[in-house]
Specification:
The complex is a heterodimer of chains A (196) and B (191). With 196 residues, chain A is mainly beta. Chain A is built from no helices and 13 strands. Chain A has one domain. Classes of the chains: A mainly beta (196), B mainly beta (191).
Chain lengths: 196, 191
Amino acid sequence: MGYTLISRSHFDNVATSTVDFTLNSDYDEILFVLSGFRPSANLALGFQFITASEAGYDRPIQSTAVQNHMYCHDYSHSDMSYTHSYDRQHTEAASSSTQFALFGPSVHTGKSHSNASGEMTLYKPHDTSFYKYFLTDSHGYQSHIHDWQQYNRVAHTAGYVKDTSALTGIRFVSSTYLGDQDGTINYLALSMYGLE
Amino acid sequence: MTLTLISTHTGSNSAALEILSGIDATYDEYQFHFYNLCPVNDGVDWQFQVDTGTNTNWNMYITSAGYNVWNKEGGASDDAQVVDHTGSTDIQANADQVYQNLTGTVGSDSYEALSGVMSLFAPASTAFLKQFISRCTAREEDYARDHWRSGMIGTAGYTVGSGETTAITRIRFRFESCNIDTGVVKMFGVK
């Protein structure tokens, strides 16, 4: 059995605050394929989880983040480094203050064709013994309004949801790179696949 | 891309998970998906070796490189580090016949484990060295970790072990120095 398409969210030019997917125990591995994300402002795609016993999307997430970037306007600079502002401390997602982990780099909307794409793998979200582990790979085009400041940016995050309860849902929002929900998602093409 | 589940291997206080059949010319790529693999002892590396079926000693020459990324709970430490043959105890010596680390240390607490995936390309080729890429995430001692490794099987450089192009038919996963408490490895064929 290969990947099974479970659900897909696709909209264009519709200001949307939250996009939710339901998680269940049918699959050991969930793959999210992001084939286009564009926010209302210079923001990133964030995600958070909910469990059956929680009222909100606010689970503690501990994650790492590394990025590569290159100036795509003149190819003059490139680098790969750990990006502290893109990782998450589990304490940031206390119940009273939702903090979203990042699917990928922020998209800057200086150009109409800028967007982000990538993949996220979530392992055994229904498990009740272990924390829930995930990996992301993504690419974003940070197009500043000035032509002399165009970024080609790649982000890789990894980590775990520090909760042994089964995850029952995931929410995607437009987020600051610090993890605060902001703005809206104006374009999204996001598919959720299950792998048995 | 279509994945076909070939076999499932469950660890339960197991010394290793050996996949001794199903790796052949049917698929150009084999993926090994790791689900919540937890060691019996704390702080050990998840590793693999392969063999050709004629050499059953699990000691193929492998040259690989990688890097590790970490972020400790509480914010005490976060960074990324290239993993080569010159570094700390977490670092895998390359170009040798030992098991290759796919992770740094993994914790053994009841909620700690590793998950991830390793791809092995064209194992049935008799013309080329065999290449692999891997990425795993894990927790150990309050650290979230992201481990990357890729390399080639059948060479140790220009001289020693160079040019071993015999088809690979078997793979063996283990923790470095203890049994596998729990966890699952699934092997998929990719077309």
